[in-house]
Amino acid sequence: MALSDTEQTGKILLHHWQAFGAGDVEAIMADYADDAVLFTPKGTLKGSAQIRSLFAKIFTTMFPADKTSLNLAKQAVEGEIAYILWSGYSPFYNAPFATDTFVMRNGKIVAQTFAAQLEAK
């Protein structure tokens, strides 16, 4: 039996969160459509190359997987939309408050928003 939109979105979200925690850029990128858009406070990233570059930077300079602690405080999934509230800490940065919203279609993230309180150490 095929998964409902909500079940499919929840499945992708779980994979995305686990890949983020592992610092696995390839697994993360498997979640995105080639033409996905990621909105951040610093600007809009369009397409796989720009989004990949952001995650590579995050895992090398901000939140390396082996030195980062993450906490998923809230998750909500409805149809093709998912929302998470989380925090993360590493020797380089604190993120006491972070939030993402995802739009998923056909098993891929097509749009995402991200905002966080980031504190360099």
| Structural class category | alpha+beta
User: What is the general shape?
Assistant: globular
Helix content: 25-40%
Radius of gyration: 14 Å
Uncertain regions spanning at least 5 consecutive residues:
none
Strand order of the largest sheet: 2-1-6-5-4-3
What's the SSE blueprint?
Blueprint: H1 5-22, H2 25-29, E1 32-40, E2 43-46, H3 47-62, E3 69-78, E4 81-89, E5 93-105, E6 108-120
Parallel strand pairs: 1-6
Antiparallel strand pairs: 1-2, 3-4, 4-5, 5-6
Tell me what the structure shows:
Helices cover 32% and strands 48% of the residues. It has 121 residues and is α+β, with helices and mostly antiparallel strands. The protein has a six-stranded mixed β-sheet with strand order 2-1-6-5-4-3, covered by helices on one side. A hairpin with a 3-residue loop joins strand 4 (81-89) and strand 5. The longest helix is centred in the first third of the chain and has 18 residues, at 5-22. The chain starts with a helix and ends with a strand.
List keywords for this structure.
121 residues; alpha+beta; 6-stranded mixed beta sheet; 6 strands; 32% helix; 48% strand; globular
In summary, what is this structure?
Helix content is 32%, strand content 48%. The chain is an alpha+beta fold and 121 residues long.
